């Protein structure tokens, strides 16, 4: 409620307040409460850099929830943000477009997250359309969305522009080998990856083959999650050997549930033996 928001956000509304990070996550805001938060954002405009809006409209009727998101976005236009988290709001294309001002006017964003947001093909297109400066992204996270190959077209287009990408996650997004190939081509535009997470998608052997040529071009890769991506018994070993040869800094590897089978185990084992800095392995 407005009254509760005034109480909770009082430190952010105080004269001279100078916070760089604000996390509103897990607090459900109605329209009047969102207006209070918006005033707080304006008050912090000179110092605010990172905002977590994940799970902030839960349980609200659609019209009210989307309006609250619009109000948040309007208040944030006064700040120059580097990071924003919009996860766990399950708002789909309508929600993405409710964030129009945030996405269009924030030109210094390096990190953005859309986990469990209902990012369909249409929502992915909206992100691509509205995001002001995708080339500045170094961290881009999506998870538990129904994006599919058709939506991955738009995500890959964003990633291809972000040549300095360090941390990319697109897990549980229901894309297949076609989507994996598009993402591989996009990631080939840069060489800065430190973390890559594509778990719970049907990358399949064709997608793995595309990644064979790409991942070794990212020598700073430290974290790789390809769990439950159906790499297959032959291509799994081939891909991991390429990673072992080109990504000497790899420390964390998740490759469970990939149908390596007995015939593919030897290639996988040789690859793991070559990962001299590996600290965490799930297989």
Number of β-strand runs? 10
Structural class call reads alpha/beta
Q: In what range is the share of β-strand residues?
A: 5-15%
The biggest sheet, with number of strands, parallel, antiparallel or mixed sense and barrel status, is:
10 strands, parallel
Distance between the termini: 48 Å
**Mean pLDDT, rounded to whole units?**
96
N-to-C series of helices and strands: HHEHEHEHHEHEHEHEHEHEHE
Number of helices: 12
Strand order of the largest sheet: 1-2-3-4-5-6-7-8-9-10
Rg from Cα: 20 Å
- Principal-axes shape call: elongated
Unreliable segments of 5+ consecutive residues: none
- Share in helix: 40-55%
Keywords:
283 residues, ten-stranded parallel β-sheet, elongated
Structure description:
This protein has helices spanning 2-8, 10-13, 31-43, 62-76, 92-98, 100-105, 121-130, 148-161, 177-187, 204-214, 235-246, 261-273, and strands at 21-23, 50-52, 83-85, 111-115, 139-143, 167-171, 195-197, 223-225, 252-254, 280-282. 43% of the residues lie in helices and 13% in strands. Helix 3 (31-43) runs parallel beside helix 4 (62-76), helix 7 runs parallel beside helix 8 and helix 10 (204-214) runs parallel beside helix 11 (235-246). The protein has 283 residues and is of the alpha/beta class. The mean pLDDT is 96. The chain has 12 helices and 10 strands. The chain has a 10-stranded parallel beta sheet, with no helix packed on it. Strand 4, helix 7 (121-130) and strand 5 (139-143) form a beta-alpha-beta unit.
């Amino acid at each position: 409620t407005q009254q509760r928001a005034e109480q909770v956000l009082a430190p952010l509304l105080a004269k001279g307040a100078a916070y760089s990070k604000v996390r509103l996550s897990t607090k459900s805001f109605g329209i009047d409460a969102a207006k209070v938060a918006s005033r707080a954002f304006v008050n912090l405009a000179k110092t605010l850099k990172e905002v977590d809006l994940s799970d902030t409209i839960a349980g609200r009727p659609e019209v009210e929830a989307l309006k609250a998101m619009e109000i948040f976005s309007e208040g944030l236009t006064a700040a120059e943000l580097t990071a924003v988290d919009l996860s766990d709001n399950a708002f789909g294309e309508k929600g993405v477009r409710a964030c129009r001002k945030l996405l269009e006017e924030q030109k210094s964003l390096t990190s953005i997250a859309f986990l469990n947001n209902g990012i369909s093909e249409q929502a992915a297109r909206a992100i691509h359309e509205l995001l002001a400066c995708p080339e500045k992204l170094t961290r881009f996270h999506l998870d538990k969305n129904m994006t599919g190959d058709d939506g991955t077209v738009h995500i890959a287009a964003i990633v291809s522009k972000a040549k300095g990408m360090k941390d990319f996650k697109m897990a549980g997004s229901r894309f297949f080998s076609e989507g994996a190939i598009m993402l591989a081509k996009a990631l080939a535009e840069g060489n800065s990856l430190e973390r890559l997470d594509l778990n719970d998608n049907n990358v399949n052997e064709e997608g793995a083959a595309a990644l064979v040529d790409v991942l070794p071009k990212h020598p700073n890769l430290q974290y790789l999650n390809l769990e439950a991506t159906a790499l297959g018994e032959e291509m799994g070993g081939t891909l991991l050997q390429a990673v072992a040869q080109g990504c000497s800094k790899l420390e964390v590897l998740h490759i469970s549930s990939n149908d390596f089978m007995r015939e593919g185990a030897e290639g996988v084992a040789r690859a793991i033996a070559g990962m001299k800095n590996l600290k965490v392995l799930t297989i």
